[in-house]
Amino acid sequence: KLFFTDYGNTAKVERCDMDGMNRTWIVDSKIEQPTALALDLINKYVYWVDIYLDSVEVVDYQGRKRHTVIKGKQIRHLCGLAVFENYLYTINSDNLSILRINRYNGTDVQSLARLDNAKEIRVYQKRTQTAVRSHACEVDPYGMPGGCSHICLLSSNYKARTCRCRTGFILGSDGRSCK
């Protein structure tokens, strides 16, 4: 799945399949300017920062179990968001500090360091990388991912895929080759 935020005409948090199909709104009320987004891949939770409401909130992948992690002036100007173990990590763009927030009680907020011009944060740790199983976009014997001549996108599950073409090409009737 692909998760993303939008604060155009209607602010929302959405999800869709990797090929863009099955687009679903998971949050569309009491939300103004959702920006940074992070996933808890193990427990299947979506966290986001709303810079207008000065809040960090969370829901499950279906948009249920919503609650506010932290709200108020102390988290104003947040950008970037990452989840690791019991904490959320984010950047305060006002003073360029990295913040660590306890994602369960929101009261334990610590400034860890300062970085000039930081706008995004990621946690890279072996335990956060899910094991890759056999999937529909694996390279075939001819060197084509999923049998697609240009781009292979996973679809509704790891066994399904959709082929797409680079700009200027059209997908052939076989659903795999680009012309």
TrEMBL record:
<dbReference type="Pfam" id="PF14670">
    <property type="entry name" value="FXa_inhibition"/>
</dbReference>
<dbReference type="InterPro" id="IPR000033">
    <property type="entry name" value="LDLR_classB_rpt"/>
</dbReference>
<dbReference type="GO" id="GO:0017147">
    <property type="term" value="F:Wnt-protein binding"/>
</dbReference>
<protein>
    <submittedName>
        <fullName>Low-density lipoprotein receptor-related protein 1B</fullName>
    </submittedName>
</protein>
<feature type="repeat" description="LDL-receptor class B">
    <location>
        <begin position="1"/>
        <end position="43"/>
    </location>
</feature>
<dbReference type="GO" id="GO:0060070">
    <property type="term" value="P:canonical Wnt signaling pathway"/>
</dbReference>
<keyword id="KW-0449">Lipoprotein</keyword>
<feature type="repeat" description="LDL-receptor class B">
    <location>
        <begin position="44"/>
        <end position="87"/>
    </location>
</feature>
<dbReference type="InterPro" id="IPR011042">
    <property type="entry name" value="6-blade_b-propeller_TolB-like"/>
</dbReference>
<keyword id="KW-0675">Receptor</keyword>
<dbReference type="Pfam" id="PF00058">
    <property type="entry name" value="Ldl_recept_b"/>
</dbReference>
<dbReference type="InterPro" id="IPR050778">
    <property type="entry name" value="Cueball_EGF_LRP_Nidogen"/>
</dbReference>
<dbReference type="GO" id="GO:0005886">
    <property type="term" value="C:plasma membrane"/>
</dbReference>
<dbReference type="GO" id="GO:0042813">
    <property type="term" value="F:Wnt receptor activity"/>
</dbReference>
